[in-house]
Amino acid sequence: MALFDRPKYEAPSDDILVWKHDSEELKLGSQLIVNQSQEALFLKGGQVCDLFGPGRHTLTSANLPLLNLLVDLPFGGKTPFAAEIWFISKTVKRDLKWGTNSPIPLIEPTFNYPISVRAYGRWGLRVQDSRCFVLQLVGSQIAADTAKVAEYFIGEINQRFSAALASFIHEEKNSIFEINVKLNELSRYAAAAMTPEFTRFGIELINFNVERVSIPDHELAKFQEVSGRRMEIEQISKAKVGDAYKTVRTFDTLEKTAENPGGGAGALLAGGLGLGVGVGAGAPLGKQLGDSLTLGQQVQHDVVGRLQTLKRMLDEGLITQSDFDAKKKDIMDSI
Questions:
Q1: Backbone angles phi, psi at 88, to 5 degrees
Q2: CA distances from residue 229 to 24, 88, 175, 224, 226 in whole angstroms, order as listed
């Protein structure tokens, strides 16, 4: 294998993050050329030996102290030796896209309702620790571009963003239906949760932006249906016609009255003031129930008055007992 006097790497595109030199056969006295925004890492037997920054470096046993300990480099001359050279790009890679592969299940805290969401955005990275990056992430690959590294981290992003979003919703008491007005805050929150994982691989998370959080149409339609029913129940419970027991009793009274069209009140209720029609007629529910309760009380007072009058007529001999019994039955049937 040929010896290289001037090992260097000219990246064909800015997408390359790390590249391994074609030959492992080097010699003392060679000129190592490291371009701007690059670092060159020497490895021997999988162990990091030395790291060089931008510039021209003459390889000697003096500036390769760790490698010298492993291979016992002689002083002087152009003695060949074997080692790996990895060139690492230190430029910032921005405008990388991320997005959830499947909906994220959540419990909406305001309504305590299960719902699923999707999210997407952009992120950026830079190799911060070349030693850590090459050893942990690159391995035995000859080269690694931004797409390969991003593909690996997309899984980490989705997993950690899901946990961060759930925490942001519940611990910070944010409604999922208002989340898109807090995207900047959510982006910072999620970035802080992800940073330790990137740092572990020698990567600096330059930016992490959440551009949109959306609810699938079928999920939103289902929620709106359930929410509408829940609001109706809450309105009934808040109706200002006394406590809940009195409200329920009023419904029972009106329903029985409406089922009897023989009386005046029954005819009126059967004509359109029943439970379903009355509630949906557009007037405030509290006022309708209040009016209905007043009507029920008037019906009860009218029945009592008629029975009292009928009893006085019997006591005064104006009607017979049979007449009293027949009229009483008619009055009671009209309730």
A1: -115, 130
A2: 72, 60, 20, 9, 5
Q: How far apart are CA 307 and CA 332, in angstroms?
A: 9
User: 42: burial class by Cβ within 10 Å (0-12, 13-18, 19+)?
Assistant: buried
Q: How far apart are CA 331 and CA 335, in angstroms?
A: 7
The verdict on residue 6 lying in a domain is no
Domain that holds residue 298: 241-333
250: exposed, middle or buried (Cβ count in 10 Å: 0-12, 13-18, 19+): buried
Tokens describing residue 253: 């009274």
82 with 100, same domain: the answer is no
**Number of domains, the chain:** 3
Q: In terms of domains, do 36 and 145 share one? A: no
Q: Do residues 148 and 196 share a domain?
A: yes
Residues near 332 by Cβ (< 8 Å), separated by ≥ 6? 303
Which residues in the chain show pLDDT less than 70? 1-5, 24, 68-79, 139-143, 230-301, 303, 335
Q: In a 3-state reduction of DSSP, which class is residue 6?
A: coil
Calculate Rg over the CA atoms of the chain: 41
CA gap 172, 165 in Å, rounded? 10
Average confidence score pLDDT of the chain:
77
For residue 2, tell me if it sits in a domain: no
Residue owning tokens 């992490």: 208
Does this model's pTM top 0.70? My answer is no
